[in-house]
Design brief:
mainly beta, 0% helix, 102 residues, single chain, 2 domains, 34% strand
Length: 102
């Protein structure tokens, strides 16, 4: 099964101030999965106040509802504690009832 992830998040709203908008720098990050049976790549593109997450991951069990969480940092040291807290810009709980706040 190939899972396509395509999420467009609006982290903050840009409000008009009557001034000419500033140019935004685009920031780009990549996460690659290489641990069998999973493989794939997820791309994070931030432009202005928008964050776009796209990619594909294979090896996931078919017809199963799965949760995804993203840590704030890419550091995996200190038994992965250096990855920091979950990225949660809207401070929302998981939609899967059996899980805790993720």
């Amino acid at each position: 099964m190939l899972l396509y992830i395509y999420i467009l998040l609006f982290i903050t709203n840009v409000k008009g101030s009557g001034r000419t908008p500033q140019c935004f720098q685009t920031v780009f990050s990549i996460a690659t999965f290489v641990t069998p049976p999973y493989s794939g790549t997820v791309y994070f593109t931030k432009h202005g106040s928008n964050l776009r997450v796209t990619g594909s991951v294979s090896g996931l069990p078919p017809k199963k509802l799965l949760g995804v969480h993203i840590h704030e940092y890419g550091a995996l040291g200190n038994e992965c504690n250096d990855a920091g807290p979950h990225f949660n810009p809207f401070n929302r709980y998981s939609i899967i009832k059996e899980t805790e706040n993720k």
